[in-house]
């Protein structure tokens, strides 16, 4: 299972999410797949952040889409509500910085989630122009992922990028829009699995997220899942190591 786990926003259970700190700690443990979220600043700098605002990350109401990248320097990505002040001073990270870090781990696959909020604010073309130059010569295997199939289609057609949909419903996997993309993988929340279905019923290899228990991961893999995404990458990897000793 070791090579089948995706670190969801880095080692999120232990460190602030979407930070170089949390990502590097996951890599040092041997994570072979990393997932990150991207929002754009007002001057079109791709920043690692799940939300539009810095409320959770920095206890600030600042909207990333409405501020310049330089405005972020005074804010810390430390998640005070969840982690207290122990990571105060951790900087927000950019996609460019993340790609530089990952280059030292060339066998690690990066999944770059483009957030729908940024696409709505700036438009698909702006998102493409901000992201494409950074990833077109990426040293790592990677995929652009998103809930927006329109955005994925643009990246596939204009940039030749490997694109992976994040499903909004189980039925969407069988839709014509997804079929057009012919994705090598699809991401799916475990809560979307119908009671009478298993991962093997999907028409594409699947990665399931919101999985933090080794036994559930093993079950999903045995039922046909290709990959498992988890916030608890360290705990899951350590549990596997313990089981093998």
TrEMBL record:
The lineage of its organism: Bacteria, Pseudomonadati, Pseudomonadota, Gammaproteobacteria, Cellvibrionales. This is GP-PDE domain-containing protein. InterPro entries: GP_PDE_dom (IPR030395), PLC-like_Pdiesterase_TIM-brl (IPR017946). One of its GO terms (molecular function) is phosphoric diester hydrolase activity. It holds the Pfam family GDPD. Residues 3-245 form the GP-PDE domain. GO terms for biological process: lipid metabolic process.
């Amino acid at each position: 299972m070791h090579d089948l786990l995706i670190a969801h926003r880095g080692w999120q259970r232990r460190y602030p999410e979407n930070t170089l700190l949390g990502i590097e700690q996951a890599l040092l443990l041997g994570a072979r797949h990393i997932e990150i979220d991207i929002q754009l600043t007002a001057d079109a700098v791709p920043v690692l952040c799940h939300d539009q605002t810095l409320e959770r990350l920095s206890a600030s109401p600042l909207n990333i889409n409405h501020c310049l990248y330089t405005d972020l320097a005074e804010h810390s990505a430390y998640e005070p509500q969840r982690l207290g002040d122990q990571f105060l001073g951790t900087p927000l990270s950019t996609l460019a910085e993340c790609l530089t870090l990952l280059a030292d781990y060339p066998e690690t696959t990066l999944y770059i989630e483009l957030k729908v909020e940024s696409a709505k604010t700036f438009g698909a073309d702006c998102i493409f122009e901000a992201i494409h130059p950074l990833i077109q010569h990426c040293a790592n295997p990677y995929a652009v992922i998103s809930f927006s199939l329109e955005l994925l289609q643009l990246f596939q057609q204009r940039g030749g990028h490997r694109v992976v949909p994040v499903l909004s419903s189980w039925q969407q996997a069988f839709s014509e829009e997804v079929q057009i993309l012919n994705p090598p993988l699809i991401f799916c929340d475990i809560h979307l699995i119908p009671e009478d279905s298993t991962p093997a019923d999907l028409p594409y290899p699947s990665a399931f997220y919101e999985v933090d228990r080794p036994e559930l991961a093993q079950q999903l893999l045995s039922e046909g899942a290709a990959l498992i995404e988890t916030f608890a990458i360290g705990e899951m990897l350590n549990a596997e190591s313990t089981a093998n000793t």
